[in-house]
Specification:
By secondary structure, the protein is an alpha+beta fold. The chain is built from 8 helices and 18 strands. The protein is globular.
Length: about 375
């Protein structure tokens, strides 16, 4: 097909193959997901020693456990003997140790090899040398972030820096105390679309008036396609008649204690590349974690977090959950409608970005830079 020269108001997107090519997705696994900090699990989900969860990070399966001292540890989910997967369930609880179901090599919760059949007959085996392979782990916002790189990038620059870049103040996100909030609802979405389509969708609001009627009622400026999250420090203001961030604009819950007057009645969105969205409103926090599993499949786990007393009281959180659940369902359906066309010859050279979407070029440049890295 002939490619027409673009007028100044239009900017080219990535070509379609970036969303369909299995080899390109493999490069993303290697050069992005396996080299950057990846938000793996909510820390409070592992609430006692022996609790574990397994997550897919790039091409590796990672095991996160709570040790007997209360610390979180992360390891590659691979037995050091013959390579069997150590924990085959996505989550669970063990009493004192982790035992391989193949040959019963056994590790303590800190990853050290502590037992194996006939191990005493092999005195030359250094048990510490055959422990589980550790993975770097940091905690922030109440979540465990892991990094597979031998030399992880600066957490402060690449993760915390995303909040500073968006909010303009390192302390702004701290006012919500996400690490102290309680889980009110979790919904997992299996989206048949490339992870980048989901990121691009989250970065713009050109589509909001078309597919998000409930959201634009609460945040009227979104109806004009205003990409609020692109502007440093700006939060989209609630409509005049809106009382809370709920599906019908009705009152939510009390403002979180340290949310400032400037943050009250405003919505802030933060993208932490590559796969996390943080949504901040006065009475709760919504956090999305993406798990890209294939070039055309992404699992998204979305948590709604509230003040502990709200959850403990059994309060009905359905109206606030329903608002963003509808947004999620609408967005993911749009991404799934888009995914098949990425393989069309009509999209071989890509599409275009209108002025309110031009900032998506920053994401595309970031992506290409990492894919081009040796």
């Amino acid at each position: 097909m002939t490619t027409l020269p673009l007028p100044p108001s239009l900017v080219a997107t990535l070509p379609g193959r970036y969303y369909t090519d299995p080899e390109l997705f493999r490069s993303e696994q290697e050069r992005i997901f396996e080299r950057m900090w990846f938000c793996a699990v909510r820390s409070a989900d592992l609430d006692r020693p022996g609790a574990f969860r397994t997550v897919q990070v790039g091409r590796e399966n990672v095991l996160v456990t709570r040790s007997r001292t209360g610390a979180l540890n992360a390891f590659l989910n691979v037995c050091r003997h013959r390579g069997a997967r150590l924990c085959t369930e996505e989550q669970g609880q063990v009493r004192r140790s982790l035992q391989c179901p193949y040959h019963a090599w056994t590790y303590d919760l800190d990853g050290k090899l502590i037992a194996a059949p006939n191990l005493t007959r092999m005195p030359d085996v250094d048990r510490s040398a055959y422990g589980l392979v550790p993975v770097a782990l940091r905690e922030w916002l109440g979540y465990a972030w892991v990094c597979l790189a031998d030399e992880p990038p600066s957490f402060e620059e690449t993760v915390l820096g995303a909040a500073v870049e968006r909010l303009g103040d390192a302390a702004a996100i701290d006012h919500y105390h996400a690490e102290e909030l309680a889980l009110g609802k979790r919904i997992t979405y299996d989206v048949r679309a490339n992870w980048k389509l989901i990121v691009e969708n989250f970065m713009e609001c050109y589509h909001c008036a078309t597919i998000h009627p409930e959201l634009t009622e609460v945040l009227p400026e979104f109806a004009d396609g205003y990409a609020a999250q692109y502007y440093v420090g700006h939060g989209a203001e609630f409509g005049d008649d809106v009382k809370g961030f709920t599906v019908d604009g009705s009152e939510g819950f009390g403002t979180l204690p340290e949310v400032t007057p400037e943050q009250d009645r405003r919505y802030y969105a933060v993208t932490v590349r590559p796969t996390v969205f943080v949504n901040l409103v006065p009475d709760h926090v919504i956090l999305h974690r993406m798990f890209p599993l294939a070039e055309d499949r992404t699992v998204v786990e979305c948590d709604w977090l509230y003040a502990p007393d709200v959850v403990a009281s059994g309060a009905d959180v359905s109206k606030s959950v329903e608002l963003f659940h509808r947004v999620n369902a609408q967005d993911f359906a749009a991404c799934e409608r888009t995914q098949p066309a990425m393989a069309s010859r009509a999209y071989r050279e890509g599409g275009v970005l209108v002025p309110t979407e031009h900032h998506i070029r920053i994401f595309h440049g970031w992506l290409r830079e990492r894919l081009d890295a040796a």
